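Quiz preparation item.
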């Protein structure tokens, strides 16, 4: 396979991966589900980055979105409810050479997985975390999730959700050592692709909250934004997510926001009058935990046992 360079010379790749190389099984989501858009954008990001499929792993918890590892032609682990992030941290800890992705939802991550979410963000290991947030438990058919809008009728709150929804952006931004926070709607493919691409290029844990359509159980969550783009605020900046004019045209409200400005990001996340879309925050200098955990991985088992013996000998009486 050949690749044409800007100077018109040719790169000859030993292996070139096409979109087909990243395809997994046939996706079984409902027609119109926003998960398809995230899957397609992710396939394209993998292809453009020429990630070796055998060097990539997708990890998930439980929920509709957590079926993603089945639909990507890489290694995958469909784990336990709320435990995708610790599994991914463990994989990255022992195999820092792997390209690690996490697919999780609002129920999986923000409810049962809330503890692991906070600690994984602080560890800032190099991985992409895709949050498919549809404001409902979809797989189990319409129970209130932490991000269900107040008043939305669900099977657990037939007269409408009682509590104000949790704000995943302010919480994530408030975690020590956070390094990448973005939000994007699934129904804008170019913006979705560019956001996931930027997340993949970032070294550290990239938290991408995708506002995701679930036309079966939570139309009330995304439809108002789809019908009225004035509810959204597109964030623009030279260091943010690249957006072309076609994308800009569909967002009547836009604001220049420097993603290194944490206070500005927090103010945008707290403001409920408009929903920010794009890159809220990025810190390329945040500490990455595998820089510590990967130390000594190259040692043989014998060397590791000898080191343990030597350490224990210090306590011999
Ligand atoms: Fe998608 Fe909702 Fe169907 Fe689940 S229930 S596959 S989130 S449309």
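Solution:
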């Amino acid at each position: 396979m050949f690749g044409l360079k800007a100077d018109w010379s040719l790169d000859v790749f030993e292996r070139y991966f096409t979109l087909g190389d990243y395809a997994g099984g046939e996706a079984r989501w409902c027609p119109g589900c926003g998960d398809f858009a995230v899957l397609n954008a992710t396939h394209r990001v993998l292809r453009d980055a020429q990630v070796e499929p055998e060097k990539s792993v997708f990890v998930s918890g439980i929920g509709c979105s957590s079926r993603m590892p089945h639909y990507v032609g890489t290694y995958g682990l469909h784990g336990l409810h709320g435990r995708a992030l610790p599994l991914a941290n463990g994989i990255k800890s022992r195999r820092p050479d792997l390209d690690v992705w996490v697919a999780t939802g609002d129920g999986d991550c923000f409810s049962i997985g809330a503890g692991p979410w906070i600690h994984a963000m602080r560890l800032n290991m190099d991985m992409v975390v895709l949050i498919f947030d549809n404001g409902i438990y979809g797989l189990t058919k319409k129970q209130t999730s932490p991000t269900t809008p107040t008043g939305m009728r669900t099977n657990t709150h037939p007269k409408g959700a009682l509590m104000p929804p949790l704000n995943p952006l302010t919480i994530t931004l408030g975690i020590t050592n956070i390094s990448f926070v973005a939000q994007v709607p699934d129904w804008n493919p170019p913006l979705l692709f560019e956001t996931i691409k930027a997340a993949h290029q970032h070294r550290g844990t990239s938290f991408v909250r995708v506002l995701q359509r679930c036309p079966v159980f939570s139309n009330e969550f995304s439809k108002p934004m789809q019908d009225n783009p004035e509810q959204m605020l597109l964030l623009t900046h030279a260091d943010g997510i690249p957006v072309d004019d076609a994308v800009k045209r569909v967002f009547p409200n836009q604001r220049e926001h420097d993603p290194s400005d944490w206070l500005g990001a927090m103010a945008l996340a707290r403001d409920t009058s408009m929903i920010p879309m794009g890159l809220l925050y990025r810190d390329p200098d945040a500490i990455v935990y595998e820089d510590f955990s990967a130390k000594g991985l190259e040692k043989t088992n014998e060397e590791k046992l000898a080191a343990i013996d030597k350490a224990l000998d210090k306590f011999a009486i």
